[in-house]
Amino acid sequence: MKHTRESLVSIICECRKNGTGIVLRGADLSGLDLRGLDLRYADLQCADLRGADLSGLDLRGLDLRDADLRWADLRRTDLRWANLQCADLRGADLRWTDLRYADLQDANLRGANLRESDLRWTDLRWANLRGSDLRGADLDFAGYELSCKTIGIKADKRLVSQLLYHLCRMDVQDCPEWDELRNDGRIIDLANKSHVIDDYDLPEIEQTNAQEDK
Asked: Predicted confidence band at 213 (pLDDT cuts at 50, 70, 90)?
């Protein structure tokens, strides 16, 4: 059965009145304008939310496991602590979305727009991020996976400088090629533009002793 906004409002009101949980597991909510609805604590596991407009909603801690959120509008949505394991978020608009502490294990975010989203402490293990747009996103402390599933992401200076900073702080052994690159002034300059230096009181990158002794 495909729901309408009116039928959904009726279900929510009835559940709130009776003090019962809003169970929408497997419900067809595709294409609906859900803005302004109170979906707090709802069970949306396996729900069909393709193309639905959930922008600006408070969805903290919701069960969205295996939900189909392809092309959904999730701009500025609060998804902190939400369970999005195995959710299909291909092509979803997640700009300015708060995903702190969310569980996105095995989620499909291929081609998703995550610009300016807050992904701190988000679990992204095994998530497919190919072609996703992470420009301006905050990935501090996120479980970001280095695998074929994260190839081809769109990044910006913030993420590149952060990754370079971590690379430069590695104790790399038996790799003279990296020794030379690591001491390139351009690499050091870009790594030192990383926000982590000021945000977490970390030291700037300097040339290694081996390079200085040459």
From this structure: very low
